[in-house]
Specification:
This is Peptidase M14 domain-containing protein. This protein is of the alpha/beta class. It has a domain of 233 residues: Zn peptidases (Aminopeptidase), CATH 3.40.630.10. The chain is 35% helix and 19% strand. It contains twelve helices and ten strands. An eight-stranded mixed sheet has the order 3-4-6-5-7-10-8-9, sandwiched between helices. It has a two-stranded antiparallel ribbon with strand order 1-2. Strand 8, helix 8 and strand 9 form a beta-alpha-beta unit. Helix 2 runs parallel beside helix 3, helix 3 packs across helix 12 and helix 8 crosses helix 12. It is globular. The structure holds zinc ion (ZN).
């Protein structure tokens, strides 16, 4: 029987909020969702989830696929929930991507939580079963594994690839930051523009050319192959509590900005209602900082995916160390509230085709 636990949580702005959760009842199954996990453990759990017989089997067909291989030879996995008995022509997909930036562990945990939630919840809500869901839990496996190496690598952001030129600079300067590319600056949308340096020894290095990286290529190929079905693409990051629309490079806005904003406001309203957490809505250029070559800008501009969002999750304000090394309690609250926000989004999208 489903039991709901009621947790009282003191939100960051001092409000007392109530989060209803049943995750202890019907999720977990031996995998500790309440703590950060290594890449290997996550992959093991994803395989288990894809293969096990769960109550969602009536609604979805589950599969774990690889979108490509990284520089160091790891798989870039995507977990697919494809609705059974659906009209192929009307199929629409929500794509959620996590872990583009290695140190943002809360992002990875959030995707794993949502996958578990859809796979093992005993009653799949209508808003969830309206769409196919594809979640990419660790877009940057090499970087993520590197952040687990030791305390000096914990704040790594990029992937771990390098060109001959980069290796030469690295050997000259003996500086680790000269290795790797920022995956979320590597897309062909104002590539190398504001906030995306073209020289390697920066943590936001855009790469030697657009789509030079296996991770960005893998995502681009997947989104391009499925562009007519993808209704929304959401890139989850930490931190700052911002729910952002395109674009990052300038004040330019997508033609469907009003509709994207309408849905964003409903998503953040749902989060505030349940947790007291306040998210700001606006373009990443206007409310964060100028950035170029991001996946959501590219997906909006080049593929015309109707809804694309870059979400910076909890906490709202913190030093870099505190912000990227959120405590497990904050991580769990984030997982639950983001899932609520995404379900609110799913229930308010306009599905024209
Ligand atoms: Zn990020």
């Amino acid at each position: 029987m489903l039991m709901f636990l009621v947790l009282l949580i003191f939100g960051q702005n001092g409000l007392i909020s109530t989060v209803y959760t049943n995750y202890k009842e019907d999720l977990g199954n031996g995998f500790d969702l309440e703590h950060f996990q290594t890449f290997d453990k996550i992959v093991e759990e994803l395989k288990e989830l894809a293969n096990e017989n769960t109550t969602d089997n009536k609604v979805f067909e589950k599969s774990l696929i690889s979108l490509g291989e990284t520089f160091e030879g790891r798989e870039i996995y995507a977990f697919k929930f494809i609705r059974k008995n659906d009209n192929e022509n009307k199929r629409k997909t929500m794509v959620i991507e996590c872990g583009a930036h290695a140190r943002e562990w809360v992002s990875v945990s959030t995707c794993v939580y949502i996958i578990t939630r859809i796979a093992r919840s005993s009653n799949t809500a209508n808003t969830v079963s309206k769409y196919d869901w594809v979640l990419i839990p660790v877009l940057n496996p090499d970087g993520y594994v590197y952040t687990w190496k030791n305390s000096t690598t914990r704040m790594w952001r990029k992937n771990r690839s390098f060109t001959e030129e980069q290796m030469k600079i690295y050997l000259e300067q003996k500086d680790d930051v000269c290795i790797g590319v920022d995956i979320n600056r590597n897309f062909d949308s104002n590539w190398g523009g504001p906030g995306a340096p073209k020289t390697p020894c920066f943590t936001m290095y855009a790469g030697p050319k657009p789509f030079s990286e296996n991770e960005s290529k893998a995502l681009v190929n997947f989104l391009t192959d499925n562009k007519d079905e993808v209704i929304a693409y959401i890139s989850l990051h930490t931190f700052g509590q911002k729910w952002m629309t395109p674009f990052g490079h300038s004040k330019e806005k997508p033609t469907n900005l009003n509709e994207m904003e309408r849905v964003a406001l409903l998503s953040v309203e749902a989060i505030k209602k349940v947790s007291g957490l306040v998210y700001t809505v606006g373009s990443s250029h206007d409310i964060m900082y100028p950035n170029s070559g991001s996946s959501v800008d590219w997906a909006s501009k080049t593929l015309s995916i109707p809804y694309t969002y870059l979400v910076e999750m909890v906490p709202k304000n913190a030093t870099l160390e505190v912000g990227f090394m959120a405590e497990p309690e904050l991580m769990m609250e984030n997982c639950k509230t983001i899932w609520i926000g995404l379900q609110a989004m799913a229930s308010h999208l306009k599905n024209d085709s």
